[in-house]
Specification:
Blueprint (H helix, E strand, L loop, with lengths): L1 H25 L4 H23 L7 H25 L4 H22 L7 H17 L9 H29 L7 H31 L4 H5 L9 H29 L4 H24 L5 H18 L4
Length: about 325
Amino acid sequence: MEYLLLFGACTFFSLQFVFQKLFERRAREGVAVCLWNIAVSGAVAVLFLIAKSGLPEDMNGTSFLIAALYAASGLICSVASISAMNCGSVAGVGIFCLAGGMILPFLYGVFALSESSGLFKWLGMLLLTVSLFPAVMTKNGEERTGKRLRYAVLCSAVFLTNGLVSIFSKMHQISPRAVDEDSFVLTGALLRCGAAVLLMLFLAAASNRKRGTRPFREMFIEIGREPMTRRLFLVLLLSAAAYSVMNTLGNLLSLRCMNLMEASVQFPLLSATVTVLTALFGAVFFREKLRAGTIVSLLLTVAGAVLVAVQPF
């Protein structure tokens, strides 16, 4: 039963990248459009969590501060991942996202919390680190050097910020002033959504000062690559909402699985499976070619995750 729940979580986490890519393919480029996506997906998550458990009532200063850091990291990670998908593959973004979610929390646990480690875990971390390089290497000619560099920088930002999301989650979990999980996640979602809206308004005001009056509709409604229609707007809206639903369902199944499996086994298996499924979904839904570099990265990621999960005799 636990492995069925784990596979369900892996599927939902992988599908969230599909809906992010679908949004990116139909939306214009730019930070404002990424913030629009974050605001919509955040609002969906907030409504779901409020319906599930109501508004947070036991929040304190420590939990609120960690939730703010958690929300800021998640916001930057979403902007970077959507932007990265504009100049590279879904598989590469998934590899960097999940590697960051494993490597940085591991280092935090070892050096900040004095958690135990072993040779297999360090070898696993080494393989995960090496797996990042083939994922951003392509053979498309010198004319694409700028785009390849931008992709590498954005993927690095995804790696860092998704790792920070995991670290702040762990930091709150071990805090003596930690509130219940629903309150923490809901507070983070509220802050993330609110920050996205405020940043959108700031960008609109800055644009008005720089370029003169710019219609609100052009900034925040007509966000498609093509002339906006009701159908296109609905596709973008549902893509952002579906991303939020997939992410929420994945988290719920993963949390349920924590009660049935050891974390040292669950998390590496989850990361490796999501990495592979993300690459497969990218090939199926968007006809992305699984280049040699991507395949090497996937193999190294799976091998690294297995080593992390292995318990020495």
